[in-house]
Amino acid sequence: MSGRFKAACIQLSSAREVEPNIAAASALVRAARHAGADLIMTPEVSDMMEPKRAQRLAKARDEDSHAMLGAFRDLARETGAWLLLGSAAVRRGDDAERLANRSFLIAPDGDVAARYDKIHMFDVELASGESYRESNAFRPGDAAVLAPLPWGLLGMTVCYDLRFPHLYRALAQAGADFLSIPSAFTVPTGRAHWHVLLRARAIETGAFVFAPAQCGEHAEGRKTYGHSLIVAPWGEILAEAEDGTGFVIAEIDPAETEKARRAVPSLSHDRPYAAPARWRRNRSARLRRAARRPRP
Predict the structure, then answer these.
(1) Which member of 9, 50, 159, 215 is catalytic?
(2) Is 44 a catalytic site residue?
(3) pLDDT score, position 284
(4) 230 to 10, 61, 215, 248, 284: CA distances (angstroms)
Protein backbone atom coordinates (compact mmCIF):
# COMPACT_ATOMS: atom_id res chain seq x y z
CA MET A 1 0.00 0.00 0.00
CA SER A 2 1.13 3.52 -0.62
CA GLY A 3 -0.08 6.82 0.76
CA ARG A 4 -3.39 8.53 1.21
CA PHE A 5 -5.80 9.16 -1.64
CA LYS A 6 -9.23 10.62 -2.25
CA ALA A 7 -12.22 8.45 -3.10
CA ALA A 8 -15.50 9.72 -4.53
CA CYS A 9 -18.92 8.07 -4.77
CA ILE A 10 -21.18 9.32 -7.55
CA GLN A 11 -24.92 9.38 -6.85
CA LEU A 12 -27.07 8.96 -9.97
CA SER A 13 -30.73 8.76 -10.84
CA SER A 14 -30.42 6.66 -13.96
CA ALA A 15 -33.06 6.71 -16.69
CA ARG A 16 -34.05 3.81 -18.91
CA GLU A 17 -31.95 4.90 -21.91
CA VAL A 18 -28.17 4.54 -21.89
CA GLU A 19 -26.96 7.75 -23.56
CA PRO A 20 -28.43 10.24 -21.04
CA ASN A 21 -26.93 8.18 -18.24
CA ILE A 22 -23.49 8.30 -19.87
CA ALA A 23 -23.74 12.09 -20.08
CA ALA A 24 -24.91 12.49 -16.46
CA ALA A 25 -22.31 10.12 -15.03
CA SER A 26 -19.46 11.55 -17.11
CA ALA A 27 -20.17 15.10 -15.94
CA LEU A 28 -20.09 14.01 -12.30
CA VAL A 29 -16.91 11.97 -12.79
CA ARG A 30 -15.19 15.03 -14.25
CA ALA A 31 -16.43 17.17 -11.35
CA ALA A 32 -15.18 14.63 -8.80
CA ARG A 33 -11.80 14.49 -10.51
CA HIS A 34 -11.63 18.28 -10.48
CA ALA A 35 -12.28 18.09 -6.71
CA GLY A 36 -9.22 15.87 -6.36
CA ALA A 37 -10.65 12.34 -6.41
CA ASP A 38 -8.23 9.58 -7.40
CA LEU A 39 -10.78 6.73 -7.30
CA ILE A 40 -14.28 7.53 -8.58
CA MET A 41 -17.18 5.07 -8.36
CA THR A 42 -20.71 4.98 -9.77
CA PRO A 43 -23.77 3.00 -8.60
CA GLU A 44 -25.26 -0.30 -9.67
CA VAL A 45 -26.96 -0.33 -13.12
CA SER A 46 -25.39 3.00 -14.02
CA ASP A 47 -26.07 2.32 -17.69
CA MET A 48 -29.85 1.96 -17.49
CA MET A 49 -32.71 1.51 -15.05
CA GLU A 50 -34.92 -0.32 -17.53
CA PRO A 51 -37.70 -2.14 -15.63
CA LYS A 52 -39.00 -4.18 -18.57
CA ARG A 53 -37.10 -7.43 -19.09
CA ALA A 54 -37.59 -7.56 -22.88
CA GLN A 55 -36.48 -3.96 -23.40
CA ARG A 56 -33.48 -4.41 -21.13
CA LEU A 57 -32.40 -7.47 -23.06
CA ALA A 58 -32.84 -5.62 -26.36
CA LYS A 59 -30.79 -2.62 -25.21
CA ALA A 60 -27.97 -4.57 -23.58
CA ARG A 61 -24.69 -5.06 -25.43
CA ASP A 62 -21.62 -7.22 -25.00
CA GLU A 63 -18.45 -5.63 -23.63
CA ASP A 64 -16.96 -4.85 -27.03
CA SER A 65 -19.93 -2.74 -28.09
CA HIS A 66 -21.15 -1.48 -24.71
CA ALA A 67 -21.50 2.30 -25.01
CA MET A 68 -21.08 3.14 -21.33
CA LEU A 69 -18.10 0.86 -20.82
CA GLY A 70 -16.43 2.41 -23.87
CA ALA A 71 -17.22 5.91 -22.63
CA PHE A 72 -15.77 5.15 -19.19
CA ARG A 73 -12.59 3.71 -20.66
CA ASP A 74 -12.16 6.97 -22.58
CA LEU A 75 -13.04 8.94 -19.45
CA ALA A 76 -10.36 7.16 -17.43
CA ARG A 77 -7.76 8.08 -20.05
CA GLU A 78 -9.04 11.67 -20.12
CA THR A 79 -9.06 12.21 -16.36
CA GLY A 80 -6.18 9.96 -15.28
CA ALA A 81 -8.36 8.58 -12.46
CA TRP A 82 -9.23 5.04 -11.45
CA LEU A 83 -12.91 4.48 -12.24
CA LEU A 84 -15.37 1.90 -10.97
CA LEU A 85 -18.35 1.55 -13.29
CA GLY A 86 -20.53 0.25 -10.46
CA SER A 87 -22.39 -2.11 -12.71
CA ALA A 88 -23.87 -2.38 -16.17
CA ALA A 89 -26.12 -4.85 -17.95
CA VAL A 90 -23.85 -6.89 -20.21
CA ARG A 91 -24.72 -9.61 -22.70
CA ARG A 92 -23.12 -12.98 -22.03
CA GLY A 93 -21.92 -15.27 -24.78
CA ASP A 94 -23.17 -18.36 -22.94
CA ASP A 95 -26.73 -17.25 -22.06
CA ALA A 96 -28.99 -15.58 -24.61
CA GLU A 97 -31.83 -15.00 -22.15
CA ARG A 98 -30.01 -13.57 -19.14
CA LEU A 99 -27.45 -10.81 -18.76
CA ALA A 100 -24.55 -10.25 -16.38
CA ASN A 101 -24.89 -7.51 -13.75
CA ARG A 102 -21.21 -6.66 -14.07
CA SER A 103 -18.97 -4.24 -12.19
CA PHE A 104 -15.85 -2.90 -13.94
CA LEU A 105 -12.67 -1.46 -12.44
CA ILE A 106 -10.96 0.69 -15.05
CA ALA A 107 -7.33 1.83 -14.80
CA PRO A 108 -6.17 5.35 -15.76
CA ASP A 109 -4.86 4.02 -19.08
CA GLY A 110 -8.39 2.85 -19.98
CA ASP A 111 -7.76 -0.86 -19.54
CA VAL A 112 -10.32 -2.94 -17.65
CA ALA A 113 -8.34 -3.97 -14.58
CA ALA A 114 -11.02 -6.24 -13.08
CA ARG A 115 -14.56 -7.49 -13.60
CA TYR A 116 -17.06 -8.83 -11.10
CA ASP A 117 -20.46 -10.39 -11.82
CA LYS A 118 -22.99 -9.89 -9.02
CA ILE A 119 -23.36 -13.18 -7.14
CA HIS A 120 -26.52 -12.75 -5.08
CA MET A 121 -29.75 -12.07 -6.94
CA PHE A 122 -32.43 -9.79 -5.48
CA ASP A 123 -35.47 -12.08 -5.62
CA VAL A 124 -37.87 -10.67 -3.03
CA GLU A 125 -41.37 -9.47 -2.33
CA LEU A 126 -41.48 -6.49 0.01
CA ALA A 127 -44.25 -5.67 2.46
CA SER A 128 -44.88 -2.50 0.42
CA GLY A 129 -46.04 -4.71 -2.48
CA GLU A 130 -42.87 -4.26 -4.56
CA SER A 131 -41.68 -7.48 -6.19
CA TYR A 132 -38.28 -8.15 -7.72
CA ARG A 133 -36.98 -11.22 -9.58
CA GLU A 134 -33.47 -10.28 -10.60
CA SER A 135 -32.61 -13.87 -11.47
CA ASN A 136 -35.15 -13.76 -14.32
CA ALA A 137 -33.04 -11.16 -16.10
CA PHE A 138 -29.51 -11.73 -14.78
CA ARG A 139 -27.37 -14.81 -14.40
CA PRO A 140 -25.51 -14.77 -11.07
CA GLY A 141 -21.74 -14.75 -10.92
CA ASP A 142 -19.85 -17.52 -9.19
CA ALA A 143 -16.53 -15.96 -8.11
CA ALA A 144 -15.40 -13.34 -5.60
CA VAL A 145 -12.99 -10.76 -7.03
CA LEU A 146 -10.07 -8.97 -5.42
CA ALA A 147 -8.42 -6.24 -7.52
CA PRO A 148 -5.15 -4.34 -6.93
CA LEU A 149 -5.20 -0.55 -6.70
CA PRO A 150 -2.15 1.67 -6.14
CA TRP A 151 -3.20 2.03 -2.48
CA GLY A 152 -4.22 -1.52 -1.61
CA LEU A 153 -6.66 -4.27 -2.62
CA LEU A 154 -10.30 -3.72 -3.57
CA GLY A 155 -12.96 -6.35 -2.92
CA MET A 156 -15.67 -5.90 -5.55
CA THR A 157 -19.35 -6.59 -4.77
CA VAL A 158 -22.75 -5.25 -5.86
CA CYS A 159 -25.86 -4.21 -3.90
CA TYR A 160 -27.73 -7.30 -2.57
CA ASP A 161 -24.36 -8.94 -1.88
CA LEU A 162 -24.33 -6.60 1.13
CA ARG A 163 -26.62 -8.98 3.02
CA PHE A 164 -24.16 -11.88 2.85
CA PRO A 165 -21.40 -11.10 5.36
CA HIS A 166 -19.43 -14.28 4.65
CA LEU A 167 -18.54 -12.86 1.21
CA TYR A 168 -16.98 -9.78 2.78
CA ARG A 169 -15.17 -11.83 5.41
CA ALA A 170 -13.65 -13.96 2.66
CA LEU A 171 -12.55 -10.85 0.76
CA ALA A 172 -11.03 -9.30 3.88
CA GLN A 173 -9.24 -12.52 4.85
CA ALA A 174 -7.83 -12.63 1.32
CA GLY A 175 -6.40 -9.14 1.82
CA ALA A 176 -9.07 -6.58 0.85
CA ASP A 177 -8.37 -3.12 2.26
CA PHE A 178 -11.40 -1.54 0.57
CA LEU A 179 -14.84 -2.87 -0.37
CA SER A 180 -16.97 -1.47 -3.20
CA ILE A 181 -20.74 -1.91 -2.88
CA PRO A 182 -22.40 0.01 -5.75
CA SER A 183 -26.14 -0.21 -5.17
CA ALA A 184 -29.70 0.56 -6.18
CA PHE A 185 -31.40 -0.05 -2.82
CA THR A 186 -35.16 0.22 -2.55
CA VAL A 187 -36.51 2.97 -0.30
CA PRO A 188 -38.12 0.72 2.37
CA THR A 189 -35.06 -1.49 2.81
CA GLY A 190 -32.74 1.50 2.53
CA ARG A 191 -34.44 3.35 5.36
CA ALA A 192 -34.35 0.27 7.58
CA HIS A 193 -30.98 -1.30 6.79
CA TRP A 194 -28.65 0.68 4.52
CA HIS A 195 -26.55 2.54 7.09
CA VAL A 196 -26.53 -0.33 9.59
CA LEU A 197 -25.39 -2.95 7.09
CA LEU A 198 -22.69 -0.81 5.50
CA ARG A 199 -21.23 0.16 8.86
CA ALA A 200 -21.40 -3.48 9.99
CA ARG A 201 -19.50 -4.70 6.92
CA ALA A 202 -16.80 -2.09 7.57
CA ILE A 203 -16.51 -2.98 11.27
CA GLU A 204 -16.56 -6.75 10.69
CA THR A 205 -13.82 -6.62 8.09
CA GLY A 206 -11.77 -3.64 9.25
CA ALA A 207 -11.98 -2.29 5.70
CA PHE A 208 -13.10 0.94 4.07
CA VAL A 209 -16.53 0.67 2.43
CA PHE A 210 -17.41 2.64 -0.71
CA ALA A 211 -21.13 2.59 -1.52
CA PRO A 212 -22.23 4.75 -4.47
CA ALA A 213 -26.00 4.57 -4.86
CA GLN A 214 -28.90 5.25 -7.16
CA CYS A 215 -31.45 7.76 -5.89
CA GLY A 216 -34.87 9.18 -6.68
CA GLU A 217 -37.67 8.01 -8.95
CA HIS A 218 -36.99 6.01 -12.10
CA ALA A 219 -39.05 4.57 -14.95
CA GLU A 220 -42.32 2.83 -14.06
CA GLY A 221 -42.30 4.44 -10.61
CA ARG A 222 -39.35 2.57 -9.14
CA LYS A 223 -37.72 4.52 -6.30
CA THR A 224 -34.21 4.12 -4.90
CA TYR A 225 -32.87 5.27 -1.57
CA GLY A 226 -29.64 7.12 -2.38
CA HIS A 227 -27.48 8.14 0.62
CA SER A 228 -24.18 7.16 -1.00
CA LEU A 229 -21.70 6.48 1.80
CA ILE A 230 -17.99 6.23 2.49
CA VAL A 231 -17.33 4.36 5.74
CA ALA A 232 -14.05 3.98 7.63
CA PRO A 233 -12.79 0.64 9.02
CA TRP A 234 -13.84 1.59 12.56
CA GLY A 235 -17.39 2.26 11.35
CA GLU A 236 -17.37 6.06 11.12
CA ILE A 237 -19.25 7.60 8.21
CA LEU A 238 -16.72 9.80 6.42
CA ALA A 239 -19.10 11.13 3.78
CA GLU A 240 -22.80 10.81 2.96
CA ALA A 241 -24.71 12.17 -0.04
CA GLU A 242 -27.73 14.38 0.36
CA ASP A 243 -30.89 13.73 -1.64
CA GLY A 244 -30.43 14.12 -5.38
CA THR A 245 -27.60 13.49 -7.79
CA GLY A 246 -24.03 14.55 -7.12
CA PHE A 247 -20.98 13.07 -5.42
CA VAL A 248 -19.29 12.77 -2.05
CA ILE A 249 -15.56 12.64 -1.49
CA ALA A 250 -13.30 11.68 1.40
CA GLU A 251 -9.60 11.32 2.07
CA ILE A 252 -8.67 7.69 2.63
CA ASP A 253 -5.72 6.63 4.78
CA PRO A 254 -5.02 2.94 4.05
CA ALA A 255 -3.12 2.68 7.33
CA GLU A 256 -6.48 2.84 9.12
CA THR A 257 -7.25 -0.67 7.87
CA GLU A 258 -4.20 -2.12 9.59
CA LYS A 259 -4.94 -0.09 12.71
CA ALA A 260 -8.53 -1.37 12.96
CA ARG A 261 -7.48 -4.98 12.41
CA ARG A 262 -4.80 -4.77 15.08
CA ALA A 263 -7.33 -3.37 17.55
CA VAL A 264 -9.89 -6.11 16.82
CA PRO A 265 -8.09 -9.06 15.15
CA SER A 266 -11.26 -11.11 14.65
CA LEU A 267 -10.38 -11.99 11.04
CA SER A 268 -7.72 -14.34 12.41
CA HIS A 269 -9.91 -15.88 15.11
CA ASP A 270 -12.12 -18.22 13.09
CA ARG A 271 -12.58 -21.65 14.65
CA PRO A 272 -14.14 -24.80 13.19
CA TYR A 273 -17.52 -25.80 14.60
CA ALA A 274 -20.29 -28.25 13.86
CA ALA A 275 -23.24 -26.59 12.18
CA PRO A 276 -26.61 -27.06 13.91
CA ALA A 277 -29.04 -29.55 12.42
CA ARG A 278 -31.77 -27.86 10.41
CA TRP A 279 -35.15 -28.01 12.15
CA ARG A 280 -37.74 -28.99 9.58
CA ARG A 281 -40.83 -29.49 11.69
CA ASN A 282 -43.49 -26.95 12.52
CA ARG A 283 -42.13 -24.59 15.17
CA SER A 284 -45.39 -24.38 17.13
CA ALA A 285 -45.59 -28.17 17.42
CA ARG A 286 -42.00 -28.29 18.65
CA LEU A 287 -42.71 -25.73 21.33
CA ARG A 288 -45.84 -27.59 22.50
CA ARG A 289 -43.90 -30.84 22.82
CA ALA A 290 -41.11 -29.08 24.69
CA ALA A 291 -43.63 -27.61 27.13
CA ARG A 292 -45.06 -31.10 27.90
CA ARG A 293 -41.70 -32.57 28.78
CA PRO A 294 -41.26 -33.24 32.50
CA ARG A 295 -38.96 -30.81 34.23
CA PRO A 296 -36.12 -32.11 36.42
Answers:
(1) 159
(2) yes
(3) 64
(4) 11, 31, 16, 8, 44
